[in-house]
Amino acid sequence: MKIVKRLGNLAVPIAEKQLLGFLNKHFVDYGSFQSLKIDFVKKTIAIECLLLEEKSVVKIKLVGVKIVFRDGVYYLEINEAETSRKWLTNLLNDLNNGKFGDHHIIIPSKMAILLKPLF
Predict the structure, then answer these.
(1) Are 51 and 23 in contact (CB under 8 A)?
(2) CA dihedral 27, 31, 37, 39 (to 10 degrees)
(3) 0.70 surpassed by pTM
(4) Tens of pLDDT along 64-77?
């Protein structure tokens, strides 16, 4: 456990920077992501973003994060989302639970290889 924790502590800042860049590149139509913190012990990702037409920062917490490799593709999967906006919490959890069909967040293999040991 000590080795995993030590590797995690070293890799977290790199992974946070890479994931923040990924979000800002692929979700630009929704706003900008200001900060991102990974807690590999609790398996969570905390995000602060400024969504389009919002006047204040929105906080998002992804709980039960895991990286899954299926059919030759890496996915970011979560158990639950918590946000500072009830409507957004409901939407993210409905999307996550398949209410609107099968939705997955595909991540590049280089990023998955960096993130997988943390989750």
Answers:
(1) no
(2) -50
(3) yes
(4) 998 999 999 998 88
Taking the C-alpha atoms of residue 104 and residue 109, their distance in angstroms, rounded to an integer, is 15
Q: In this structure, which amino acid lies at residue 15?
A: A
Q: Under DSSP, is residue 9 helix (H, G, I), strand (E, B) or coil?
A: helix
The maximal CA–CA distance of the chain, rounded, in angstroms, is: 44
**In this structure, are strands 31-39 and 73-77 parallel, antiparallel, or unpaired?**
unpaired
Half-sphere exposure of 118 (CA within 13 A, CB side): 24
* Residue 117, SS3 per DSSP: helix
Two tokens, residue 9: 């502590």
- For 94, the token pair is 């409905």
